[in-house]
Amino acid sequence: MFQVVGIPEATYHYHVKGFDKEDSNAELKELITSLFKKFHERYGYKRITKELKKLGHHINHKKVYRIMRDIGLKCVKFMRKSRKYNSYKGNVGKVAKNRLSRRFNTHVPLQKLVTDITEFKCLNEEKLYLNPILDLYNGEIIAYGIRKRPTLDLVTEPLHETIEIIRDHAIYRTTIHSDQGWHYQHNQWVKTLKKNNVFQSMSRKATCADNAVMENFFGVLKQEMYYGEKLVTFEDLRSRIEEYIHWYNHERSKEKLDGLSPVEYRTQSIQSAA
Questions:
Q1: Using CA atoms, how far apart are residues 123 and 120, in angstroms rounded to an integer?
Q2: Residues 34-65: pLDDT tens digits?
Q3: Which of 72, 70, 69, 38 minimizes the C-alpha distance to 54?
Q4: Average pLDDT, the chain
Q5: Which entry of 39, 90, 140, 201 is 20 to 30 Å from 261 by CA?
Q6: What is the dihedral of CA 215, 219, 221, 225, to 10 degrees?
Q7: What is the pTM of this model?
Q8: Which of 263, 240, 47, 226 lies closest to 142 in space, CA to CA?
Q9: Cβ–Cβ < 8 Å for 192, 163
Q10: How far is Cα of residue 34 from the mean position of the Cα atoms in its chain?
Q11: SS3 helix, strand, coil % of the chain, rounded to 5?
Q12: Which spans in 42-89 are helix H?
């Protein structure tokens, strides 16, 4: 056949390999596009590479980068500093010492928790206030409050929810760290912690690095689902935040958790311990 066609055998095999490669790349492009849409266009090539490896594809991140560039897939979420709500009103109660002292790492679930309040703008000049409580063990948001105004129940309701989780699952005594906002100096917050044997810790005034993990979460959340989007009503934004936090806990992979989501990491750790 080669003599009739007039081509060397090596040339034939070279082109056959090229066809196979094109077919393989076409399947890979389709899979990468599917993953990109699945994660709401919030993943760049490095995270997409990790997701491909989870599915059993041994592929270099440089190849994923080239493919995403060729087909025009790019994470274009707006980069901007997070707007932090400042609830400091001076010393309206007792200021706790900084027990955490920027020691953010722990291998024990529910041992070190951090919390803070951030503010969002909505349509019609309304505002939304979010108060999450985050476990430094795996970065999971274990409770949160959302209100139109920064009232005391914005922080006390998620605190009571957290206390119930601590009672059922905590191994060691828990520490909750916050800034010196009036909510966290309030007698009701302080008494609830003491009653349930939870240590209170506070950042030093005007030192956001003392609560850097919480600040980082606010930055990621706003970058991925808020900045660059049109303003929406309070209820619509509330729904988006609730959906995002569920996705963040259950699906969003973290490099420091070996590419697992916070819930996946916690579940895997429990299974390994068992």
A1: 10
A2: 887 777 677 788 888 888 888 888 888 888 88
A3: 38
A4: 86
A5: 201
A6: 160
A7: 0.74
A8: 263
A9: yes
A10: 21
A11: 50, 15, 35
A12: 45-54, 61-70
**What region does 242 belong to: left with phi over 0, alpha with psi -120 to 50, or beta?**
alpha
225-256 in b/e form (b: 16+ CB < 10 A) is: bbbeeeebebeebbeebeebbebbbeebbbee
Alpha carbon distances (Å) from 266 to 103, 112, 139, 190 = 20, 15, 10, 29
- What span, in angstroms and rounded, lies between the C-alpha atoms of 117 and 186? 15
| Contact between 192 and 156 (Cβ < 8 Å) | yes
Rg (alpha carbons) of the chain, rounded to whole number: 24
| CA–CA gap between residue 86 and residue 205 (Å, rounded) | 11
The residue among 206, 201, 174, 203 whose CA lies nearest residue 190 is 201
**Which tokens sit at 166?**
């601590």
